[in-house]
Automatic annotation (TrEMBL):
This is Pre-rRNA-processing protein Ipi1 N-terminal domain-containing protein. InterPro entries: ARM-type_fold, Ipi1_N, TPR_TEX10. Residues 153-245 form the Pre-rRNA-processing protein Ipi1 N-terminal domain. PANTHER family: REGULATOR OF MICROTUBULE DYNAMICS PROTEIN, TESTIS-EXPRESSED PROTEIN 10. SUPFAM superfamilies: ARM repeat (SSF48371). GO terms for cellular component: MLL1 complex. It comes from the Eukaryota. Belongs to the IPI1/TEX10 family. Pfam families: Ipi1_N, TPR_TEX10. Signal peptide: none annotated. It comes from Lymnaea stagnalis. Keywords: Nucleus.
């Protein structure tokens, strides 16, 4: 039965709720909610087996490398920090190239994080990059090249290019930090495997403008980023600084010396001619000697060709075409602010000065690299190797550069007044800012001079006089402020570029005078050498040293200019003093050789008189045996000094004594070298002979008899010098060694000899005696019948008097003197000698020869002989002399026979020695036949 109405209403009674209160859920609804607990493991706990390096959290390299790809930025930072921990604790293990988990794997993984979106990750990565690269760069350069070159550097290069092309500005700025690190640690690698890095630097501040349907980039324009955190000019300055640094490394002297080779090894003998370039050039590169391969790899769908290096001519030329328009736009942008703040065009605001200076310095470095030269072989030849010809630079850029840079040159810095009052700055900071601005301004103006002068290296260019005068005025002004070493390099390059142009060198005469004045007063030897090289180049060029390899004509032709000649004469006069300064300062021998070469060669033709006078004034110091130039035990230096003496600088009596001392003393180790290859002794004697022939007219008897008193004195000193060489000592030494005796009988006089001589001293004297005897015996001035001179003039009578005065009343002489007399008698015995010695001189010579022969066979003297070689040489020369001269042979036999018969007061040993000497002469077939001929003639 149905329920009652009352009960139904009770069951279905409507419950009333307040407004906004949620309805309760039914009793029969299942509750599906549940709660869980989550445990996060960011690190794996791993037991250390003691073999592989792990961090303090027991993580190995592979674990850390996997965490570098973690989605959490903190995990990536921790992973990089763990790699740094491993690197600091296990550097030696990770530096092993064959290590699978070494530095190569770490650097590749770090490269992928260069484009990470989190700044903290990138900064941590860059710091670890710096640490690893600095450790890799500790060893030698070739080791560094092998460690980072190849696929590893290609990988780093690829991601670095991606970072430099990123849309976010922070990533670009961080990429520049890594670029700096690579350039500091591996400059050689960055120079020879530049790849796309330089183009990407340009891309940071510019964007290509595409024209036409093909979409080829025809030009570049400056890019603007309205969301940039840095002002546009400040950002561009940071990029330009990197470009400047890269080109400075490319021009680094050490890098160039280590790395320059020709890319085409098969045509390595072909070099680029200097100016003008008439033949097709080959690309040159900076590369190690054993690696010349190209590093290229297909990465992420793109080819990164690392063979596109800075110093490759085609690459440099294309980069100049790409970068110069952008740099000029940067210049124009900076100059645009000048019109707003300055009433003068040459006043540059301080905030624009940095960009303008960087623009000019980059163009300067590129142009210097275009005309750089390398010494392929320092011994054989010097080859100028212009990377890009100056004609091409003049054709493309001269007109624009003159219009942009020279109209308002030189520039000066302008300090803008502050509109809002601020707290007064510290005076020290203000002075630092002003110094920075001044140094930047100097770099700007010097770079303008360097760039504009590089156009003048095109010999066909005839530039306008206006900007040439501006350059000269600024150079003169700069020399008044004592330039630094780097500034001097630039100034020298400017002066050289101007000088090689035959159309404008005369317009720079005043600047050359100031340069010479600075050179004369320069105290720093480094700078003095640089300016020496400049004037040496000018002197060689002026006298026509620089000649074309294909013909006898010089490269540079100049009109006669008295002012330039006077400048170079003053420079050459300073060379003897500079020679002594370089020697006393302890500089390297290479500079000493350069000075001597310059003094010895033909560049002194225009200033020969003044140069000889300057050389004579310093010659006493140069010839000093203790502090002079001969003290260098170097054959080339001593040989050039000997040639220097032959130029004709007058030699005083004291200077000739110095030369004698150099040749003779000290006896155990003489200063003048003597080698089997060549003998400096011979060079020195022939130098003195050539010198006297320059001073005294010895070719014609008419002029000879009109000599001045000074020339007579020089000739007399020369003969005494040659005679002192013959007797082996100077007159004072000989008087102390064997004083003459007044009561000595001339009829019964017999000589004794001193045989104490060292081996090297004897060999040296044999060489000297041969040279001097040959020179004195063969000298003659022909007769001149038309002028009344019927006899030939020789030195025979002079030498007779010197020998007689030396040997007179001396019972004891040195074997060196006796040997020289034997050689002189031999040289005068030749048939072509028209003026023979007198009979009286033959008698004196025969006494010496007979006494020497008797002494050689005497038992009392035999033990004093230093060596058998010396004895045999004396015997051979005596036989040779007596064979040539029959009169002398007859006198010697007569003396030996008389002594052997007891006509002299001699002992039995001495008589026997004379008999042995006669037997020795008869044992020679030539002497024996001569004696038979003489007997037949007497019969």
């Amino acid at each position: 039965m149905a329920k009652s109405k009352k009960n139904r209403q009770k069951d279905f009674q409507k419950v009333k709720f307040k407004v906004g209160k949620k309805l309760p859920k039914g009793d029969n609804v299942t509750n599906l909610s549940f709660k869980t607990r989550q445990i996060k493991l960011t690190q794996r706990i791993k037991e250390d087996d003691g073999q592989k390096p792990v961090t303090k959290n027991k993580l190995g390299i592979q674990d850390l490398l996997r965490q570098c790809d973690h989605h959490s930025s903190s995990a990536r930072v921790n992973a990089v920090c763990g790699l740094k921990e491993l690197w600091l604790n296990n550097t030696s293990d990770l530096l092993i190239p064959t290590n699978v988990n070494g530095y190569g794997v770490i650097l590749k993984k770090l490269s992928t994080l260069l484009i990470d979106n989190e700044a903290v990750v990138r900064h941590t990565v860059i710091n670890l990059f710096k640490l690893i690269l600095n450790r890799l760069a500790v060893k030698s350069t070739e080791d560094n090249m092998n460690r980072l070159a190849g696929n590893l550097f290609t990988h780093i290069h690829a991601f670095l290019c991606c970072a430099m092309n990123h849309v976010h500005e922070d990533i670009k700025l961080d990429a520049l930090l890594l670029f700096d690190t690579l350039l500091d640690t591996f400059p050689l690698l960055m120079v020879q495997q530049t790849g796309d890095l330089m183009k990407n630097l340009i891309g940071l501040i510019s964007t290509p403008v595409y024209l036409g349907t093909k979409g080829n980039a025809t030009t570049q324009r400056l890019s603007l980023n309205p969301d940039s955190k840095l002002p546009a000019m400040k950002f561009r300055a940071r990029v330009l600084q990197r470009m400047k640094k890269a080109f400075m490394e490319a021009l680094n002297d050490d890098t160039r010396k280590r790395c320059f080779i020709t890319n085409n090894l098969e045509n390595s003998q072909d070099t680029w001619s200097s100016f003008p370039v008439s033949q097709a050039r080959h690309d040159t590169c900076f590369a190690s000697q054993d690696t010349g391969i190209k590093f290229s790899v297909l990465f992420s769908g793109g080819c990164h060709d690392l063979d596109d290096y800075i110093t490759k001519p085609s690459s440099l030329e294309s980069f100049i075409k790409l970068s110069v328009p952008v740099l000029l736009q940067c210049w124009k942008e900076a100059r645009a602010s000048v019109d707003e703040h300055s009433s003068s065009d040459n006043l540059v605001p301080a905030d624009c000065l940095e960009v303008m200076s960087l623009v000019m310095c980059i163009i300067q470095l590129m142009f210097v690299l275009c005309s750089t030269s390398q010494r392929n072989n320092s011994v054989l030849q010097v080859a100028d190797v212009p990377i890009v010809s100056p004609e091409l630079l003049v054709k493309n850029y001269l007109q624009d550069f003159v219009k942009l840079f020279m109209n308002n040159f030189p520039y000066s810095v302008q300090v803008l007044p502050q509109t809002i009052k601020k707290r007064k700055k510290n005076k020290d900071s203000q002075s630092v800012d002003s110094n920075i601005n001044q140094s930047t301004l100097l770099a700007l103006n010097l770079a303008v001079c360097d760039v504009m002068s590089s156009f003048c290296s095109d010999l066909t260019l005839k530039p306008g006089q206006t900007w040439i005068k501006k350059l000269q005025g600024y150079v003169i002004q700069f020399f008044q402020r004592s330039p630094s070493v780097e500034q001097s390099k630039t100034l020298i390059r400017v002066m050289k570029n101007i000088f090689i142009n035959p159309h404008i060198y005369a317009d720079f005469t005043k600047a050359y005078k100031f340069t010479l004045k600075h050179y004369m007063t320069c105290k720093k030897m480094v700078q003095k050498r640089m300016f020496f090289n400049l004037f040496a180049f000018m002197g060689q060029t002026w006298d026509g040293w620089e000649r074309n390899d294909h013909g006898p004509q010089p490269h540079y032709r100049y009109e006669c200019n008295g002012e330039i000649t006077a400048i170079l004469e003053e420079f050459f006069q300073s060379l003897p003093g500079l020679l002594l300064d370089v020697k006393n300062s302890g500089e390297d021998k290479l500079w000493l050789m350069e000075i001597l070469t310059l003094m010895c060669c033909g560049c002194t033709q225009r200033s020969s008189k003044t140069f000889k006078a300057a050389l004579h004034s310093k010659l006493t110091e140069i010839l000093d045996s203790q502090t002079g130039i001969f003290c260098y035990e170097d054959e080339q230096i001593q040989q050039r000094l000997c040639f220097l003496l032959s130029l004709g600088a007058p030699l005083s009596r004291e200077q000739l004594k110095q030369l004698l001392h150099l040749l003779r003393h000290p006896r155990d180790k003489p200063v003048i070298l003597r080698r089997k290859s060549w003998s400096i002794v011979a060079h020195l004697i022939h130098g003195v002979i050539s010198n006297i022939k320059e001073q005294v007219p010895l070719n014609n008897q008419v002029i000879f008899n009109k000599m001045s008193q000074d020339q007579h004195s020089q000739l007399s000193d020369y003969l005494r010098f040659m005679f002192s060489l013959q007797i082996g000592m100077i007159a004072e030494e000989m008087d102390g060694f064997t004083p003459p005796e007044s009561d000595l009988s001339e009829t019964t006089r017999w000589l004794s000899f001193e045989f104490s001589v060292q081996g090297d001293q004897w060999e040296r004297h044999v060489e000297i005696a041969n040279i001097v005897a040959k020179e004195l015996a063969n000298f003659h001035i022909p007769a001149s019948l038309s002028n009344g001179y019927h006899q030939v003039f020789t030195f025979t009578s002079n030498m007779e008097q010197l020998w007689k005065s030396t040997l007179a009343n001396r019972p004891h002489i040195h074997i060196l003197s006796a040997y020289s007399l034997i050689k002189y008698l031999y040289e005068t015995s030749f048939p072509h000698i028209t003026v023979k010695p007198s009979t009286e001189f033959y008698q004196e010579g025969s006494l010496v020869i007979a006494s020497v022969l008797s002494s050689l066979f005497c038992r009392d003297v035999a033990h004093k002989m230093p060596s058998e070689e010396m004895v045999w040489l004396i015997k051979a020369d005596i036989i040779e002399c007596l064979t040539m001269n029959s009169s002398l042979l007859e006198l010697v036999l007569k003396l030996l026979t008389a002594r052997s018969l007891g006509e002299y007061k001699t002992s039995e040993d001495e008589k026997q020695a004379s008999k042995t000497a006669i037997d020795f002469l008869y044992s020679n077939d030539s002497i024996k036949s001569k004696i038979l001929d003489m007997k037949n003639m007497q019969a």
